[in-house]
Structures are given as structure tokens and as C-alpha cells.
């Protein structure tokens, strides 16, 4: 299991300390949620912020574009230092083109589905992605409660990938914490995004190590 702490839940006035905690806690990626105020209600990290984070760490930056028009912003986020980039199936009219743009830039390409979107909708794009991000809450806000049906959804996606012998990783984001991270990993998830379960604790680095231990599988 790889752990990707979400900076959305960190102290936004002290992102440098949050990045340092990710390194100290053994995180494999840093998850950066980009919100545009249209696809989701909130606004979050823009290009200058991502550039600043890139200068602070060598950890891969996992950029989740929660935006209504990803094709307009994609090149800028890639140039700013994104190593992994995921775009939503729900708003990507020309999804194949976007995924190829990400890969051509040397980054890992991912597709995201909201909780109400069946994973079966991805059957024709799986060969063009490096990972699938399953939202286990409705996107837009940190600190939401995990939606239990997400586990069965991950199982279905894992079965699809195995049947087609595809080396595609499964990432899950939303409501993952101490009480359910083992179940998430057992459902076939490779990368767990954790926000409040990390940065809502007194010692984020220790919280990361605890989550990795509770996952029951080494990174």
C-alpha cells in the first residue's frame, strides 16, 4: 500500500511543514486537490502553489484535477511539476486525448470517477491509464464520511483489471482512516489518500506511520 497524504486537510498557511511531515512519515506521494469553484464548490491550489510545493520536495506530486475544463489547465499543471495527474471521467469529453497529453509529458495518467459513476464506464479507457482514482466521498470538501459501497466498487475494478491483465493501480480518496484502511487495501486498493486522518492529528508523521501499519501491507 502506498500512502498519499492530502494537502487539502493540512494547515494551508504552513504547507512547507505539511510537506516535511509527509517526508518524515514515509509517504510515497503527496496528493494535491485542485478545485475550480465550478465542478466542485470550493477553490484550492493554483499553479504558483504547486510550483512552490515542487521546490520543497522530491516526492511525486499526485495532482487531482477537480475542474470543469481540465483541458484548459492541464498543460500548466504539468509544467508546474505534477508527476501524476488525474482527470474526471464526468467532465472529460475527449478523455483519450487528455490521457495521452499527460503521458506525452512524462507524467502518470489517471482517470477519476465519482461515487455514483460505475467503474464499468471505464472499460474502454483502462488500457490508456496508469491508475484509476475512486472517490469514496463526493468531491469538494475534506473531512467527509467514507461511503461503504466504495469497497465493492474497488473489488469490481480489481476484477476487471485482472481479467484483462492490466498493470493499472487503484487509488481511493475520501474518508480513509485508522478504522477502515485495512478494509480498503483488502478490497484491492494500491494507493490510499488520507487527509484528516493525517493532518487532523497532533503528529501527522506519526499518524502516517500508524496508517501504514494498520493497512497490514508494506509499501
Q: Give the distance, in angstroms, between the N- and C-terminal Cα atoms.
A: 5 Å
Q: What structural class do you assign from the helix and strand content?
A: alpha/beta
Second rung of CATH, namely the architecture: Alpha-Beta Barrel
Number of domains: 1
- Mean residue pLDDT: 94
Low-confidence stretches: none
Give the C-level CATH assignment.
Alpha Beta
**Largest sheet strand order:** 1-8-7-6-5-4-3-2
Q: What does this protein look like?
A:
The chain has 219 residues and is an alpha/beta fold. The chain has one domain: Aldolase class I (TIM Barrel). 36% of the residues lie in helices and 19% in strands. It has helices at 15-24, 47-56, 70-80, 95-104, 149-163, 181-186, 196-199, 204-215, and strands at residues 2-5, 30-35, 61-66, 84-88, 108-113, 131-135, 169-173, 191-194. It has an 8-stranded parallel sheet. The longest helix is centred in the last third of the chain and has 15 residues, at 149-163. The model has no long low-confidence stretch (mean pLDDT 94).
Question: Helices and strands in order, then pairings?
Answer:
Layout: E1 2-5, H1 15-24, E2 30-35, H2 47-56, E3 61-66, H3 70-80, E4 84-88, H4 95-104, E5 108-113, E6 131-135, H5 149-163, E7 169-173, H6 181-186, E8 191-194, H7 196-199, H8 204-215
Parallel strand pairs: 1-8, 2-3, 3-4, 4-5, 5-6, 6-7, 7-8
In short:
The protein has 219 residues and is of the alpha/beta class. Helix content is 36%, strand content 19%. It has a single domain, classed as Aldolase class I (TIM Barrel), CATH 3.20.20.70.
Amino acid at each position: 500500500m502506498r500512502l498519499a497524504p492530502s494537502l487539502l486537510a493540512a494547515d494551508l498557511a504552513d504547507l512547507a511543514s505539511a510537506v516535511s511531515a509527509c517526508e518524515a512519515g514515509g509517504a510515497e506521494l503527496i496528493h494535491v486537490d485542485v478545485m475550480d469553484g465550478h465542478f466542485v464548490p470550493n477553490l484550492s491550489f493554483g499553479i504558483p502553489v504547486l510550483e512552490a510545493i515542487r521546490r520543497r520536495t522530491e516526492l511525486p506530486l499526485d495532482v487531482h484535477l477537480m475542474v470543469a475544463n481540465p483541458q484548459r489547465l492541464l498543460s500548466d499543471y504539468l509544467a508546474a511539476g505534477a508527476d501524476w495527474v488525474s482527470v474526471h471521467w464526468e467532465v472529460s469529453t475527449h478523455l483519450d486525448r487528455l490521457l495521452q497529453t499527460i503521458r506525452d509529458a512524462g507524467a502518470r495518467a489517471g482517470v477519476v470517477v465519482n461515487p455514483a459513476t460505475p467503474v464499468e464506464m471505464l472499460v474502454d479507457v483502462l488500457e490508456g491509464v496508469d491508475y484509476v482514482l475512486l472517490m469514496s466521498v463526493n468531491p469538494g470538501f475534506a473531512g467527509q464520511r467514507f461511503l461503504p459501497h466504495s469497497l465493492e466498487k474497488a473489488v469490481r475494478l480489481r476484477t476487471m483489471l485482472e481479467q484483462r491483465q492490466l498493470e493499472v493501480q487503484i487509488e481511493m480518496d475520501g474518508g480513509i482512516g485508522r478504522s477502515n484502511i485495512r478494509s480498503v487495501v483488502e478490497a484491492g486498493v494500491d494507493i490510499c489518500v488520507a487527509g484528516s486522518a493525517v493532518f487532523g492529528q497532533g503528529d501527522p508523521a506519526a499518524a502516517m506511520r500508524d496508517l501504514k501499519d494498520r493497512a497490514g501491507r508494506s509499501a
